[in-house]
## 1
Amino acid sequence: MPFDPSDVSRGPVPNDPVEQLVVLLSRLPGLGRRSARRAALKMLQDPQRLMLPLAGALNAAAAAVRPCRVCGNLDTQDPCNVCRDPRRERGLVCVVEGVADLWALERGGAHRGLYHVLGGTLSALGGVGPEDLSIQPLVERVSAGEVEEVILALPATVEGATTGHYLADRLRPLQVPVTRLAQGVPMGGALDVLDDGTLAAALRARRPA
């Protein structure tokens, strides 16, 4: 039976090496079936320069990269380089949905504090509750007494707003200021696709949650 390309996200990987490569590439964000075929063809045409170095880098990253036990960032060290940096403002913690958002903020250089990765947002339809996110570890970090402000840098979506309100309620008894991003983040926008200037402006204009 020929391989059905209609569902490449969850189905079995085919035995043919070329088709394997296309299917696995198409599972990456932003790469559909057609884009994956183009990328696969490019690598196959020059495997020594493009494919083998990529395979080595993937193997090395898979073996070395791990989640940071403090903030949830991905790094080769645990705690990660951000958490270990003595120049960071230890009392300023920026809460983000995922590692992609953390990397976006770091790319712009607008935040000089620490981070906390939730691992998602609350979603009743998606079946994601508080116990599925890194919320209790955040509460414990704030309860330890070193945090002076929590910035909620969550996506401007219904789920992001719901999560922000929930976090503000959970943190309110700890009497630590909780702020959120203001101007510059459009409704429905994800942080990792915004430009650096927009992210910097949103951080500077944060307001109480």
## 2
Amino acid sequence: MLKTEVSEKVIIGVDPGTQVMGYGVISVKGQQISLVQYGVIHLSKYSTHELKLKKIFERLTQLIEEYLPDEMAIEDPFYGKNAQSMLKLGRAQGVAMAAALARNIPIVEYSPKKVKQSVTGSGNASKEQVAYMLEKILKMELSREFMDATDGIAIAICHQYHANSPASVSTPGSKKAKKGGWGAFVSENPGRVK
């Protein structure tokens, strides 16, 4: 009996921020998810927004060169009360995406609610609840001082879960549905489309 070798997929998850940016790198072999690396990029020490963006690009480029991810999952910026903060967060996300695009790494965006829902079952879960569930999924203890990093891990795991959902798996002769797009919605909700 021949044994087929299970291929490995590496996913980097990024939680963009202008003060602290979290990231998590996971490896997936078959159904086994393991944590490769996680951490934060401290940006508050940089005096200008431009320096922060430069640091994000440089550090993510280093991580990409070191871990060679196959895909990047990144959290969508969400609208808060301050439009200026939203603009800065969008720039941080764009620079993070540019680091992946420079290496031809596919990128998928997920809303914070979708990430929490995927990992905990509740779109309104706290950071602590997300970290607790990640420890159960990964079967290891995570440092509580890096809550932004655990968000990065959660985004990567969310992507893995959705990459294997029926809506995102292509069948012969069909185009793969864009995650989060209308094709995925229609596939997941056939009774709601007329």
## 3
Amino acid sequence: MPHQVISVNSSEPKTIEVKKKSFFTFFLTALLGATVNFISQIFYRKAFNFDTSVLLGYLTATVVSFIPTKNYAFSAKETGNTGREAVKFLVIALIAWGVQVGTAVATLEWVANPYFPSVSLFWREKTSHVVGMGFSFLANYFGHKLLTFRSTGMYDKFTGRSGRGTE
């Protein structure tokens, strides 16, 4: 029986491993942000309504998670474009915030309240908030991966600058 030699592209497994590592590291930085978001939202809820407390928790987490996301999740520590990346990070964060708040409020009003009225309001709100955070995680990951820590030329177009260095 003859032996077959199969050629394997050695760069492909490395690419898959890098993608897995990037996603896992983003997950860990997102976990930090989610923890800050979740805990701070509980404190904000004492002074504000549900919608506002979710917003404030999200904004607090966004500020706390920028540097870990930049340096560890996307290995963009040495890009020299922190200002540009911060602007893009904020834009993606605002979009993901809309996803989070919209999903959390919709889950609370359309699922948790009508289907689980015997569960305490605290737990209906927390569960709805976590559902919103899950959808926000996906919006953040793909937004930051495809835009924030990648050179797209959009920043230069938006600011009217052209050909002034790399992003």
